[in-house]
Amino acid sequence: MNFVVAPRLRVLCAVLGPIIPLVKACAPGSVTSTQNIGRAMLQCALVGPTTPINTSADINALVASFEASAAGKLPSTPDAKA
């Protein structure tokens, strides 16, 4: 195993890191975060997958539906009982 990959990966992340917000602004459906991937996995576990293969746009749509369904189940005020 070659352990030289880690420094190269750090350099790659340092170079590409500032570019990601620009790509996300220009093409919002083509970039997603690991947090969105996790939320989409939860949504797929709850209601089933929408397609066999999900693109970034599909993942972002699953996250939007997950947040919309969770919004109706959460109390609106801290003292409200669900």
Protein described:
The protein has 82 residues and is mostly helical. The chain has a domain at 28-73. It is built from 4 helices and no strands. It has helices spanning 5-16, 19-26, 34-47, 56-73. Helix 3 packs across helix 4. The longest helix has 18 residues, at 56-73. The chain is elongated. The relative contact order is 0.10. Mean pLDDT is 78; it is low at 74-78.
Characteristic key phrases:
63% helix; 82 residues; mainly alpha; 4 helices
Order of helices and strands: HHHH
Strand content: under 5%
Class computed from helices, strands and strand pairing: mainly alpha
The CA-CA distance between the termini, in Å, is: 52 Å
- Total helices: the number is 4
Helix content: 55-70%
Task: Give the strand tally.
Answer: 0
Tell me, rounded to a whole number, the average pLDDT.
78
Would you identify the regions where 5 or more consecutive residues have pLDDT less than 50?
74-78
Main beta-sheet annotation: none
Q: Which word captures the global form?
A: elongated
